[in-house]
Amino acid sequence: MLQGWVIASVSFAYLGVLFAIAYFGDKRADAGRSVIANPTIYALSLAVYCTTWTFYGSVGRAASTGIGFLPIYLGPTLMAGLWWFVMLKIIRISKANRITSIADFVSSRYGKSQLLGGLVTVIAVIGIIPYISLQLKAVSNSFTILLHYPEIVMPARAGAQPLLQDSALYIAMILAAFTILFGTRHLDATERHEGMVAAIAFESLVKLLAFLAVGIFVTFGIYNGFGDIFDRAELVPKLKSLMTVADTGASYGSWWSLTFLSMLSIMFLPRQFQIAVVENVNERHLARAIWLFPLYLLLINIFVLPIAVGGLLHFPDGSVDADTFVLTLPMAERQEALALFVFIGGLSAATGMVIVETIALSTMVCNDLVMPVLLRWKALRLQEEQDLSWLLLSIRRWAIAVILLLGYIYFRAAGEAYALVGIGLISFAAVAQFAPAIFGGIYWKGGTRQGAIAGLLAGFAVWIYTLLLPSFAKSGWLSLDFIREGLFGVALLKPQQLFGLTGLDEISHSLFWSMLANIGCYVAVSLRKRPDVVETSQGTLFVDVFRHTEGAERSRFWRGSAQVQDLLPLIGRFLGPERAREAFLAYARRRGLASLEQLQANADLVHFAETLLAGAIGGASARVMVASVVKEEPLGIDEVMNILDEASQVRAYSRQLEQKSRELEAATAELRAANERLKELDRMKDDFMSTVTHELRTPLTSIRAFSEILLEDPKTNLANRRKFLAIIVKETERLTRLINQVLDMAKIESGNAEWHTADIDLHEVIEESLAATSSLFGDKRIRLEKLLAEGVPRVRADRDRLIQVMLNLLANAVKFCDEDRGCVTVRLSAGSDAVRVDVEDNGPGIAEADQHTIFEKFRQVGDTMTAKPQGTGLGLPISRQIIEHFGGRLWVESNPGRGATFSFILPLNREGMGQEERTEK
Amino acid sequence: MTKRILIVDDEPNIVVSLEFLMKREGFEVAVAADGEAALKSVEEKKPDLVLLDIMLPKKNGFEVCQTIRANPAWQSVRIVMLTAKGRDTEVAKGTALGADAYMTKPFSTKDLIAQVRQILGES
Amino acid sequence: MNRAIITGQRLAAVFLLGCVLFNYPLIALFNKPGELFDIPLLYLYLFGVWAVLIGLMALTIERRKD
Question: Residue A800: which of A838, A757, A748 has the closest Cα?
Fold first, then answer.
């Protein structure tokens, strides 16, 4: 005989154990030694998916639809295969943005929209509350059944008892208190509840063991293994049909849509999001969960069909609800302890679900529904409140209480009605509406806030019309007419045969239409206009989360000014001043700053503050609050597009890269050229030195040789002596000339030459030069032709220097003239702005290639092929320097074989320069 | 028998001085003003020693030296290279090409004569 | 290629394989009365495939080198 107090005290003892685990977990977490930093615990906590709807309901479902209960678990198994990409991305995004709930996620993605967050919250609350009722009902029923042990009495219609005798009420109250203790002990910026997760993982273990215990007992205790049960089932036609699926298109269709639905539910049920994403402490844990969680599902389902069949065989008259077989089979076999264990297992399944779900919902209600309203409500003067953390906590506590109360009220109202029994899948279909906005949000940058709102509203409306309202009608709360006849009697509007679509079960039917409406509106409205600034930046942060390193990129999207002394109190109001100070201090230390005073209120800090706040009050509200103290300069959409547009980014990047490499190439080429020039200069200097040395040594050789000869041999005959001395004098002159020219050259090049500038008559200069060289002409019998224009204007130049140039050109001309019929022509002519002088010879000419080099120092053309020319090789370079000094130009024109013409021009009209030139050094 | 010396230089005054010196020392002297003339002279009558300038028109001293050394018949010809460029590389190049000695201009007449005599084995 | 991406692709392949194995028309092949080792055919097939998929995922994950 199981007394009520025994069951109650065992239950409380169990809850006590849970609380101890949670308390221990929190303590360890505070100490930095997390108990849940373990992939197996993460995987077990994910099994919060399995509620009483699994624990008791699967068997019930299997008893009526046979193997049809399975898709609900096959879907999550398949989905786990995609977690590596999808869930990891959601976790990464959520951690980067301190997402605290699924509503926060959606609202953050679409530009931190409060409206969207609220909408998601409403959908979640409406979709989930009946599901919570279901847990209450299961616990209450199992308690009642167990109370009658060993008799098997089906509980009275739920809600039939007087309120104060209704165990469900007390269960709801206990669970509310328990959840408040678990979930809102303190306000965490990350909204993580490590202790709770540890407790949930423990619960998952308990319910699995309990279910396996029943399964093993039924399969091997009551019957002789799987073979025995299935053999017996073969004999009963009704049972035999449970082993197969109806072989119709519709039944395969339902199979598929249930699989699909559960794939979405495992992602988007608020409790799953809470456990898998918000409570995740390390994204590497996900890997183990990918196979361990499906394994859990497999284990908890192996015995479902045997228990269902066993129950149906055991209670053939149908007096016992199949939903209770898990409990009633051990009871019928007088297994007191096992029955109690099963009850605890069911309690685990229920409490796990209720705790996580209400925490998730209360966070959403607080952050996305209540706070935004309160913060806008100026009359409350919340903006002036110094510490709002108490307010946040109490809102959450109240939200938990209210949610459970609503769950209880729904339970009372619905009772045995269809609305409760079928609610599992109806809930799934509700949360499936989040899928387009979330999947679209993390893979498509084009999704907009309006698109998401439109999609959610449309999908939610269709869900209400095709699933929720019909379930109300079937429960007798609404006239069944609108199901049978359609709304306003329009047959096309029959909620379960919308637009005449038949042949689908109600879930598939609703899923099809709601998804069509949802995705259709989401995509169509999103495409209607370009995402705005915030949507674009958030979209990029979400979609490209793997490319943006932590925090590095985000501040790009913000420009404005803020003060630390504004931000800190703001955060303090929600987190408590002490915690806020600590968080800011930690932030400062991470940046290597010693104190808060050194913090710069830059984009990074503002972002840090906003994320910190987002952890407490949700992204949308956090944005509003931070914006209230921060002067933000809005970025133009074009600006953001420029920053963001992936293509343009890549293009810009590669453009930059190209430009850089071009610059680099250019720099390299320049360097190489400079290096070449330097090497060339070096070589030239070397050559120059070598040549000068050579030119100096050659006359010295003769001088020394003859001097020694004369010195050693005083008896040298007079003729030789004269000859030798003449050579010595000549070579000495040559040496002097050379030295003068080298010095001259050096002076001109270094800018130290003396210039005596005056107005020069070139006519005079030429005549004087010709006079000085007349003996040369005479010696070589060279004809001179003078074509000198009269009245040529004077030019400003140094007379002696110009004579030097002329002498050089004339000497060259004579030197290279035709040996037999030499002829040199000298021309003087005046143009409008310059005077020109040509000196033409009729010698061999200068090859094209040499016309440039002859102006280089010591370059004498024809070194090896003709007799060695006389001269220092400095004449032409010096001449050119002189002419260029006066702004003129000296060049040569020649056709090899037909002589060469050296010409120079000197500019006219150089007024105003003379005086300065005179003193120029 | 008097030794024959070929003087190759394009500086007429240097040729005059060398010719005078060598004749005074009792050598038979031939003269060439460029590389080609030098080789022609060697061909016509093989000298015992060549005083060879490097900077020569038409064919420089190195080439002349190389040509002489390449001809087995001219193995006995001694070569003293004269240069106004005192670079080590040129000294090395000359020696490598088979010159017997190398003198830098301006040289001491005594040293030159001593060198010539030594190479000819007359000292 | 990044090892993590290879792992992800293997898992996605398991997902696709599961989608095919758990759906019409393949399940229709096993959706008939009859037993194998005293276990109904469809039941055995579904749990067998399920176990194989889990095994493949476990193998992919636990033996990855990243």
Answer: A757
Instruction: Tell whether C41 is covered by a domain.
Output: yes
Contacts of A308 (CB under 8 A, 6+ apart): A59, A60, A62, A63, A242, A322, A325
Full 3-state SS string of A374-428:
HHHCHHHCHHHCCCCHHHHHHHHHHHHHHHHHHHHHHHHHHCCCHHHHCHHHHHH
Pick the residue from chain A with its C-alpha nearest to B34.
Answer: A867
Task: State how far residue B56 is from chain A, nearest Cα, in angstroms.
Answer: 7
For residue A618, the surrounding DSSP H or E stretch is: none
Beta bridge partner(s), residue B53: B82
- Residues of A near C (Cβ–Cβ under 8 Å) read 67, 70-71, 74, 77-85, 225-227, 230-231, 234, 240, 243-245, 247, 252, 255-256, 259, 287-288, 290-292, 294-295, 298, 302, 305
A481 located within any domain: no
How far apart CA A52 and CA A70 sit, in angstroms, is 16
- What are the helix (H) ranges across A415-505? 418-421, 423-431, 434-443, 449-463, 469-474, 481-484
Exposed, middle or buried: residue C3 (CB in 10 Å: 0-12, 13-18, 19+)? Answer: exposed
Q: Specify whether A826 is located in the same domain as A696.
A: no
Q: Does A766 share its domain with A782?
A: yes
Domain that holds residue A583: 557-633
| Nearest C-alpha neighbor of A902 from the set A818, A833, A785, A809 | A809
Using an 8 Å Cβ cutoff, are B50 and B42 in contact?
yes
Please state whether the peptide bond connecting residue A150 to the residue before it is cis, i.e. omega within 30 degrees of 0. yes
- Paired strand residues for A561: A631
Pairing of strands A823-830, A783-788: parallel
Q: Do chains C and B touch (3 or more CB pairs under 8 A)?
A: no
Which domains are present in chain B? 4-119 (3.40.50.2300)
Mutation target among B9, B10, B11, B13 for the A interface, most CBs of A within 10 A: B13
Residue C2 belongs to a domain:
no
Q: How confident is the model at residue A368 (pLDDT cuts 50, 70, 90)?
A: confident
Count of domains for chain A:
4
Q: Give me the number of domains chain C comprises.
A: 1
CA distance A564 to chain C (A): 41
In a domain, C17, yes or no: no
Give the one of B20, B84, B109 whose C-beta lies nearest to A694's C-beta.
B84
A727 and A765 inside one domain? no
CA distance A237 to B48: 134
In A650-760, where do the E strands start and end?
A: 757-760
Among left, alpha and beta (phi > 0; psi -120 to 50; other), residue B57 is beta
DSSP state of B10: S
Q: Average pLDDT, stretch A598-617? A: 75
Q: Given an 8 Å threshold on Cβ–Cβ distance, is B109 in contact with A868? A: no
Average pLDDT, chain C: 82
Phi, psi of C49 (to 5 degrees): -60, -40
ipTM: 0.94
State residue A372 phi and psi, 5-degree precision: -55, -40
Look at chain C and count its residues.
Answer: 66
Cα gap A889→A905, rounded to integer Å: 5
- Nearest-by-Cβ selection for A298 from C12, C38, C51: C51
pLDDT tens column, B99-119 = 888 888 888 888 888 888 888
- Whether A466 is in a domain gets the answer no
The rounded distance, in Å, linking the Cα atoms of A707 and A725 is 8
User: Does C65 touch chain A if contact means CB atoms closer than 8 Å?
Assistant: no
Answer whether A288 sits within 8 Å of C61, measured CB to CB: yes
Confidence of residue A869 (pLDDT cuts 50, 70, 90): very low
Per the CB < 8 Å rule, is A256 touching C23?
A: yes
Q: Which residues of A touch C26 (CB under 8 A)?
A: none
